[in-house]
Amino acid sequence: MSRPRCERCVRPQNHCLCHLIPSLPSRTRVLILQHPDEVAHALNTARLAALGLMNAELKVGEVFADLQQWLSSEYRACLLFPGEEAQELPLASVPKDDRPLLLVVPDGTWRKARKLLHLNPLLAELPRVCLPAGLQSRYRLRKAPGEGALATIEAITVALNLQEEPACFDELLRPFEALIEGQIAAMGEETFLRNHQKS
Q: Which chain positions lie within coiled-coil regions (predicted)?
């Protein structure tokens, strides 16, 4: 029999994170497109990000037939995904266009995120934005697949901090950090130090 889960954060009720999830306003709208394989992931940071931002939405799937409708003309849509054409955040405002950004964020492994772009040509057509080089993930339990590889919630936090400075969105990371601390506690400090500390 499975353990009872919180309906909001979908964590086991005795590990509910809702008390740590903020409710942060932002001018930038965040649309997270989550690959179905990520839904059952132990961290599922995309869900935590969507819950913590008042102006965010999480959609799950591989093909998003309603994508055109979600790319509201009230916003300047861009895709948070690296590439040769990607502009580094923050984006300067465009003359005569004071619309806020709509940040579209694919959530999945790099391979799955690329698949989302392939299956949704409209995504690939969006202007791309990226984060500065040299960022390091706080997720100490996993070796990052490459430099600058962040969990989805980390990438969104950095993007919003850059785009909406001086506003700070670090509070969004509280449930993420609690998850990491919980995993370390579950495995035991000695096991963590032996297997995950840098030599």
A: none
